[in-house]
């Protein structure tokens, strides 16, 4: 049974590219579902799939974020990973589909959860905007703000992995693109501009180019409804699998799960550095044996000092 993937909005679930890719579960906001129903749904997902990975945007309303943490706390489970990302909506939808494609592969839930951070670096997410007057996700200089008030202005913006803003159509305007083979998905708002498909796609040498509905949160994220959002990504699930499988695996020092990278996807505990692993020098009390048992490090639990259910290092994420 594949690891369950969940989202906070139905428009973050792009169509699968094959018959094996499972869908994603939906965790609605508090005003759309009572708490007891949300807890029951999460419990069913855990019982059926073993673990639940929830991907949600950092821009998610605070009440919805609190609901996610509340559900995990009520269930007192360490099998729910809450994975927050700074990707714009369409880029997040692409990442969700990639996680779905990997969910039935032979990757442990811990490795899959921590793979979200790795894969996000390979998603080139941006938009063509007709105004940047309300854009606060990417640095905007004063000149660009001024040009936003000029009729016909268009701006090419890359939010991830390297925030960049240029004036679309300018002779020296270019967004830094991927240096590997990618596909492109495009979502149109209230704009008929063709710069993304006519200029960006050939420059980035993407194949193929597909269209998707614009996520509801895109206009708020980008500060305007007059936009064309895009995301370039690794389309081959086998390449994604090899990429994740090639990374050295670690064991979380807090929850004991597998992980890749520098942080556990489930409990958010960082991978100890060599300095963290260096034993502390403790002054021996009078009459104490110098080779006595070591005390648990701060924030750790010894074999007879287990953490309370639902406890997380550093508090809730």
Overview in brief:
The protein has 317 residues and is α/β, with parallel strands linked by helices. The chain is 28% helix and 18% strand.
Strand/helix succession: EEHEHEHHEHEEEHEHEHEEH
- In round numbers, the mean pLDDT is 86
Query: What's the number of helices?
Result: 9
In what order do the strands lie side by side in the largest sheet?
7-6-5-10-8-9
CATH topology label of one domain: Hypothetical Protein Tm841, Chain: A,domain 3
Please give the CATH architecture of one domain. Answer: 2-Layer Sandwich
Structural class: alpha/beta
Instruction: Please compute the radius of gyration using only Cα atoms.
Output: 23 Å
What oligomeric state is this? single chain
Description:
The chain is an alpha/beta fold. Among the domains are: 4-108, Rossmann fold; 124-233, Hypothetical Protein Tm841, Chain: A,domain 3 (2-Layer Sandwich). 28% of the residues lie in helices and 18% in strands. It has a six-stranded mixed β-sheet, sandwiched between helices. The chain is globular, with a radius of gyration of 23 Å. The chain starts with a strand and ends in a 40-residue tail after the last helix.
Would you spell out the secondary-structure blueprint of this structure?
Elements: E1 4-7, E2 25-26, H1 35-49, E3 52-57, H2 62-75, E4 80-85, H3 89-102, H4 109-120, E5 124-129, H5 142-147, E6 155-160, E7 164-167, E8 183-188, H6 195-204, E9 209-211, H7 218-222, E10 227-233, H8 237-245, E11 249-251, E12 258-260, H9 274-277
Parallel strand pairs: 1-2, 1-3, 3-4, 8-9
Antiparallel strand pairs: 5-6, 5-10, 6-7, 8-10, 11-12
Region (Disordered): 285-317
Biased composition (Low complexity): 285-298
């Amino acid at each position: 049974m594949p690891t369950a993937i969940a989202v906070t909005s139905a428009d973050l679930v792009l169509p699968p590219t094959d018959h094996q890719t499972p869908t994603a579960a939906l965790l609605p906001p508090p005003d759309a579902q009572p708490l007891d129903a949300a807890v029951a749904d999460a419990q069913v997902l855990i019982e059926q799939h073993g673990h639940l990975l929830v991907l949600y945007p950092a821009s998610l309303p605070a009440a919805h974020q609190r609901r996610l943490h509340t559900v995990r706390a009520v269930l007192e489970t360490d099998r729910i990973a809450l994975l927050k990302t700074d990707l714009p909506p369409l880029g997040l939808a692409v990442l969700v589909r990639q996680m779905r494609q990997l969910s039935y592969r032979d990757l442990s839930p811990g490795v899959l959860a921590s793979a979200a951070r790795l894969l996000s670096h390979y998603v080139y997410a941006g938009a063509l905007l007709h105004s940047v007057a309300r854009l606060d996700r990417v640095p905007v200089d004063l000149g660009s703000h001024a040009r936003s008030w000029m009729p016909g202005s268009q701006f090419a913006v890359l939010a991830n992995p390297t925030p960049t803003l240029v004036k679309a159509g300018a002779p020296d305007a270019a967004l830094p693109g991927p240096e590997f083979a990618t596909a492109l998905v495009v979502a149109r708002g209230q704009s008929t501009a063709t710069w993304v498909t006519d200029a960006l796609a050939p420059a980035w040498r993407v194949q193929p180019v597909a269209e998707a509905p614009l996520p509801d949160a895109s206009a708020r994220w980008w500060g305007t409804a007059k936009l064309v959002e895009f995301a370039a990504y690794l389309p081959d699930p086998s390449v994604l699998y090899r990429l994740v499988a090639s990374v050295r695996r670690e064991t979380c020092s807090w929850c004991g799960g597998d992980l890749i990278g520098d942080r556990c996807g489930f409990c958010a505990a960082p991978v100890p550095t060599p300095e963290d692993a260096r034993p502390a020098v403790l002054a021996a009390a009078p009459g104490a044996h110098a080779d006595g048992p070591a005390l648990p490090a701060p924030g750790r639990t010894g074999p007879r000092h287990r953490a309370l259910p639902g406890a997380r290092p550093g508090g809730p994420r």
